[in-house]
Amino acid sequence: MARRQLVALEVSVNTQEQTASGASFSYYAEPEVSWLRFERGPVLGGTSVAVGGSNFRGGAVYRCRFGTEAVEATYESYHDELHCFAPSALASSVPLEVSLNGQQFTASDVPFEYYAEPAVHALRPNKGPVMGGTYLEIVGQNFDQLSANHSMTRCRFNRTVVEATMLSSTVLACIAPKHAASYVVVEVSMDTYQFSVSALQFEYQP
Question: How high is the pLDDT of residue 6?
Answer without folding.
Answer: 64
